[in-house]
Design brief:
The chain is of the alpha/beta class. The protein contains seven helices and five strands. A five-stranded parallel beta sheet has the order 3-2-1-4-5. α1 crosses α2 and α5 (68-81) packs across α6 (89-101). The protein is globular.
């Protein structure tokens, strides 16, 4: 089980070859995105046609939703790391989903997550 961050999906829509190759290579039943990631991607749509296109593409991923445990992890991360680095609420929630699922997290925004030692983060390209 792996979780993919929004930056990789954004690069996919920008037709960056490395992102396209990566997503095509790892697409299995065990590839997830968080509900936060889905919102981050959808908010970038410029019109209804793009919303439909994005929604169709994202339907290929399984979604991890927020729950009480995820929220508790996110609050813990905010308390621990918000003063040490650039941990924003969306990133804390995504990191909390990764912690909750105990899985590998692919992102190129390492600086947003590097301080959180409780999760396994890997740069893609």
């Amino acid at each position: 089980m792996v979780i993919i961050d929004s930056d990789i999906i954004i690069d996919y829509f920008r037709e960056l070859d490395k992102a396209i190759d990566f997503i095509n290579r790892i697409m299995t039943d065990n590839v997830f995105i968080t509900s936060i990631t889905k919102m981050e991607i959808l908010v970038g749509a410029r019109n209804n046609n793009e919303i439909v296109e994005i929604d169709k593409f994202l339907s290929e991923f399984k979604l991890i939703y927020l729950n009480k445990s995820v929220s508790q992890h996110a609050i813990k991360f905010i308390k621990q790391y918000s003063l040490q680095g650039n941990l924003r609420i969306p990133d804390a929630l995504i990191a909390a989903c990764v912690k909750y699922c105990n899985c590998l997290f692919y992102t190129n925004n390492i600086k947003h997550f590097k301080m959180i030692k409780e999760i396994n983060v890997k740069r893609v390209y």
